[in-house]
Amino acid sequence: MAYPLIEHPLGDAFFYNGECCRFSSVIAGDLFKPSDECTYYETVRIVDGMLLFVEDHMRRLELSVKGLEDFSIDTDMIVRSAYNFIKYSRINFGNIRIVLTANKLIIHQVDVHMPDTEDFRVGINTSVLNWERQTPNLKIFRGDYKDTVNKAFSKCNSHGAPFELLLADNCGKLYEGSMSNLFVIMDGTVYSAPDDKILIGITRRRVIEALRRAGLSLACGMFSIDELSGRDDTALFVSSTPFDILPISFVDEYAFNSVGNPVLRMISDEYQKYTLEYIRRGGKNG
């Protein structure tokens, strides 16, 4: 299904193949129209003018391209263009989207649905969407998936509008979020779906490092909502580039005390420490 190459932009300009263009231009008008081109993308967070974990984003972008078309890409050039764009746009905090096709490179600031302080304090509301991903390890635009997700977000559950959707496979097992990776804490053990089932998130990698620093390890496991409900020791959280780590309080009508879980608090603390170290090193992995 065709889908536009630019969605949810902010600001008045973007970079197109290294050149600055206005959203009022003819070129922009064409990019807002649905396209059948195979489209790869990365959303990168900006903190203090720095592209957070950009080397991991570029590595995943390369893997996505190799998984389908295998044309050559210059990731160093893409990073330079991204920094030129945020310098031109004077962006110190926010998110940019890098969109790539076989012959187009588009960089623009993107409007991301961000949690507020209350979401971190009390946890988020989620709903379940039954959906099996195709090529889950590849981050590409899929119009049919986006349309289905948008419709699901418009439906409220008993706790209001969901902040995130949790995807369930054909067996009813939850495996990831529509825009995030899902983790389950049960009996002090942290679980995530198998790597071949999900998009390997950039923040997920850092969460796994935070687990290691906290003396924990990640176990492979998927659960239905019925298997998770009614247990006082169970917590759920999601991770994503824009918002780091978010506890889940509701999955439709099911409630979880994720915010009060000591293992989740420990993981969050270690994750924040690791991120601050990265920023202090000037964007270099330790």
Characterization of the model:
The protein folds into 2 domains: 13-109, D-amino Acid Aminotransferase, Chain A, domain 1 (2-Layer Sandwich), CATH 3.30.470.10; 117-279, Alpha-Beta Barrel (D-amino Acid Aminotransferase, Chain A, domain 2), CATH 3.20.10. It has 8 helices and 15 strands. It has helices at residues 26-31, 54-68, 75-89, 117-122, 143-153, 202-213, 225-228, 262-280, and strands at 13-16, 19-22, 40-47, 50-51, 94-100, 105-109, 124-130, 164-168, 174-177, 181-186, 189-192, 218-220, 235-240, 244-251, 254-255. Strands 7, 8, 9, 10, 11, 12, 13, 14 and 15 form a 9-stranded mixed β-sheet that branches. Strands 2-1-6-5-3-4 form a 6-stranded antiparallel β-sheet. Helix 6 packs across helix 8 (262-280).
Overall helicity: 25-40%
- What percent strand? 25-35%
- Low-pLDDT parts are none
CATH class of the largest domain, anyone?
A: Alpha Beta
CATH fold-type name of the largest domain:
D-amino Acid Aminotransferase, Chain A, domain 2
Number of structural units classed as domains: 2
Instruction: Please provide the count of β strands.
Output: 15
Would you identify the CATH architecture of the largest domain? Alpha-Beta Barrel
CA(first)-CA(last) distance: 41 Å
